[in-house]
């Protein structure tokens, strides 16, 4: 099922039952993914997914810093949404940073590009004054 199709809604109690190798569901940003068939393929090992199975894995998912390819692959395992009464509130957790968004791109600019340009400028000025 893709995210574009009609959304199925699950209660958290149902999700909690899917916490083993026979059936592993995880919740990421209140979306539910059946990762059972992905357990053996997961680059971090199946244990990592099984530790999160049956519960909200948003923080762990974001802490790892998954690639845009990994985020795209998520769509293949999407099965539905967490019921509104069971949804996790974003403000009750730390703010999640998504790789590839404007914030992280701006952060990369300020952390690497600007200091690099400053160092290049200093090197050019130093070289100019040392050659005269």
Structure description:
The chain has 132 residues and is α+β, with helices and mostly antiparallel strands. It has a domain of 74 residues: Roll (Flavocytochrome B2, Chain A, domain 1), CATH 3.10.120.10. The chain has a five-stranded mixed β-sheet.
Question: What order do the helices and strands come in, and which of them pair?
Answer:
Blueprint: E1 9-10, H1 12-16, E2 19-20, E3 23-28, E4 31-34, H2 46-52, H3 58-64, H4 68-74, E5 78-82, H5 102-131
Parallel strand pairs: 1-5
Antiparallel strand pairs: 2-3, 3-4, 4-5
Average of the residue pLDDT scores: 81
Briefly note the structural class of the backbone.
alpha+beta
Q: In order across it, which strands form the biggest sheet? A: 1-5-4-3-2
Fill in the CATH topology of the domain at 9-82.
Answer: Flavocytochrome B2, Chain A, domain 1
| Largest pleated sheet | 5 strands, mixed
Strand portion = 5-15%
**What does the radius of gyration come to?**
21 Å
Give the uncertain stretches in residue-range form.
Answer: 91-105
Measured as a percent range, the helix fraction is 40-55%
- Amino-to-carboxy terminus distance: 69 Å
- Under CATH, the homologous superfamily of the domain at 9-82 reads Cytochrome b5-like heme/steroid binding domain
Q: Compute the number of strand runs.
A: 5
Architecture (CATH level 2) name of the domain at 9-82: Roll
How many helical elements? 5
In the CATH scheme, the class of the domain at 9-82 would be: Alpha Beta
* Mass-distribution shape: elongated
Organism: Ciona intestinalis (Transparent sea squirt)
Transmembrane segments: 112-129
Protein name: Cytochrome b5
Membrane topology: Single-pass membrane protein
């Amino acid at each position: 099922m893709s995210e574009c199709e009609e959304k199925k809604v699950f209660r958290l109690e149902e999700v909690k039952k899917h916490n083993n190798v026979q059936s592993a569901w995880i919740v990421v940003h209140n979306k539910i993914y059946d990762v059972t068939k992905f357990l053996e393929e997961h680059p971090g090992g199946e244990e990592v997914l099984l530790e999160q199975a049956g519960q909200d894995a948003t923080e762990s998912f974001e802490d790892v810093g998954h690639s845009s390819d990994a985020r795209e692959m998520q769509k293949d395992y999407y099965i539905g949404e967490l019921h509104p009464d069971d949804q996790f509130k974003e403000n009750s957790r730390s703010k999640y940073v998504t790789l590839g968004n404007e914030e992280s791109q701006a952060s990369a600019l300020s952390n690497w590009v600007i200091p690099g340009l400053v160092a290049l400028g200093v090197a050019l000025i130093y070289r100019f004054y040392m050659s005269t």
